[in-house]
């Protein structure tokens, strides 16, 4: 029993004041929801966690075959093509899967939304867990591959956490926006997989961003926050041999932060009415 | 000392008549906008489709510590909305409520249970969702398992649980919440009688330990057994509050008796969904035309007619009969059959000499694939059965919810011959 006297005031717009405090008080729930998502992930599957290993490996092989063998695209000099692809895939998959999970988080948990109160931001936050575990596994595979290709990891690796954080911010920014829309319009459910599919080719996942360098559309290309993230992430792993234009990082940082802030504001404004649309 | 003080609580919903069912699609919004632009009118027709609906209006009350409040009223009277506001799921449009103490609400049993997780994992998950800390759950873990009686199945995924076990586990967790204020919605409707008793007992314990209880139910018997004070809601307004016995009597007398025939000629405004729409639900007793006097001997027919809007849908009907105080007497269902688009009609006959005298409430469910409830018409019909007795000399109230005539005979089995 709480010994501290606990007073709540309910009124229109009243949840505003204590929102961030509530979010902090509910951190245990955040942890439990994340754990739920992870432990449920491979229930009743034959291969189980092996999927997290197989998926990136197979995707890498197909990409290498198509882009390097058939389309004859070159990787950056001195960088094995499979590492270019796997490096790109590692961070792209982290982005795309968290983005998708966040976008669906409110709908998936709709039974909770209509029956209990907690800051709704917990749902998108907890849905990141699964993508992050997958990311760690893919990253592990990457490390094994670098040993196989004898490509040493350089000092640039210290910047890796910055890029992971940037990816997180970007996926949260886009994801929150779509999560709100998804509650209102179920069309979004159709749109999201399509966006991810397009993104796989538009972003420099299985090729180096160098291909866009010096072209007339480079400055537009760099507006995509993921260009800076993916090239930068690869640079951390592969060193200076890998192409990375730090200028693209400025747009990444500014756009990602801006989108996150706008999405947060939007989410906070709409979350009170989620229950009416579910 | 009041623990909850509510001042001028109102809650407004905007009903969108065009799309009253399900989420809107982006296309609807876009085409609507296009229409508006191209027709060039600053028309109000778009707004005419929208209607304000006050689910709660100017509600004021104060609840003291240790009070056990029952909330009665018809469907749509605002009971659920009030609970949702108290549990902070939705905010009031106006007014404010001050709550002293930790509040926990149980609007559903087993909220957030994940079917793939085991009983043990779900206890922690559900407990956390209801606002318990990990330590609190650990402390009450054994008590929860014991109360629910699921020791053997703790490590089985709950999707393998029977519905009874599922409900028991759900309630057991909620029962071990230790809030100062507990809000309970209609959860007793589920589970077997023995378990219901256990729940009622637990709720009584909660209130006897000085905590405050708010309980919504259609079951007036349960409310009378449990609550010392009651609120009576009608059309979003709190029209009366006071001693439970007094409120229940008022409620029973004010309730508009008898709904014997409901019909809709126009499919547009008929109740239902985009898959089914109700056309007619009526009661007609055999032998007699006078609906107002159905006596216990009369077989009663229920006719339910609806539009099926989905070609080839597998549909069955399920009818519940309740006493006026909310106890379910029985539930009957038809076979599931595929139907073409168009009108479908079902008839159910309750034989004569089966129901007792009293008021009964009927609700009808349209079910697809024997699993999905397409539409549930709650409290659809209300009818009275009148007493008729012959060859008896006793005219007191016949006990029981039903009064069937069964084969029950007596005969002499031995003669004692006295010389």
Topology of chain A as a string of helices (H) and strands (E): EHHHHHHHHHHHHH
Any low-confidence stretches of chain B, pLDDT <50, length ≥5?
Answer: 42-48
Query: Please, what is the CATH homologous superfamily of the largest domain in chain B?
Result: P-loop containing nucleotide triphosphate hydrolases
CATH architectural type of the largest domain in chain B: 3-Layer(aba) Sandwich
How would you describe this protein?
The complex is a heterodimer of chains A (278) and B (419). Chain A is mainly alpha-helical. Chain A has one domain. Chain A has 13 helices and 1 strand. Chain A has helices at 19-25, 27-41, 50-70, 81-108, 110-113, 122-126, 128-148, 160-184, 187-202, 218-221, 225-238, 246-270, 274-277; one strand at 7-11. In chain A, helix 2 packs across helix 7, helix 4 (81-108) packs antiparallel against helix 7 (128-148) and helix 8 packs parallel to helix 12 (246-270). The radius of gyration of chain A is 21 Å and the shape is globular. The mean pLDDT of chain A is 87. Chain B is an alpha/beta fold and 419 residues long. Chain B folds into 2 domains: 2-102 and 179-254, Rossmann fold (3-Layer(aba) Sandwich), CATH 3.40.50; 261-386, Coagulation Factor XIII, Chain A, domain 1 (Distorted Sandwich), CATH 2.70.50. Helix content of chain B is 24%, strand content 36%. Chain B has 9 helices and 19 strands. Chain B has helices at residues 26-39, 45-48, 79-86, 119-129, 134-148, 163-175, 193-208, 220-226, 244-254, and strands at residues 2-16, 50-64, 68-73, 94-100, 103-106, 181-185, 212-216, 229-234, 237-243, 261-263, 276-285, 294-295, 300-308, 313-323, 328-333, 337-339, 342-350, 358-368, 372-386. A 6-stranded mixed beta sheet of chain B has the order 5-6-7-3-8-9, sandwiched between helices. In chain B, strands 12, 14, 15, 16, 18 and 19 form a 6-stranded mixed beta sheet that branches. A 4-stranded antiparallel beta sheet of chain B has the order 10-11-13-17, with no helix packed on it. In chain B, a hairpin with a 2-residue loop joins strand 8 (229-234) and strand 9. In chain B, helix 4 (119-129) crosses helix 5 (134-148) and helix 4 (119-129) packs across helix 6 (163-175). Chain B is globular. Mean pLDDT of chain B is 83; it is low at 42-48. The A-B interface holds A 1-2, 5-15, 28-29, 32-33, 36, 39-40, 43-44, 109, 111-118, 183-187, 272, 275-278 and B 13, 23-27, 29, 84-103, 105, 107-108, 111-112, 114, 116-117, 121, 124-125, 128-131, 133-134, 157, 178, 180.
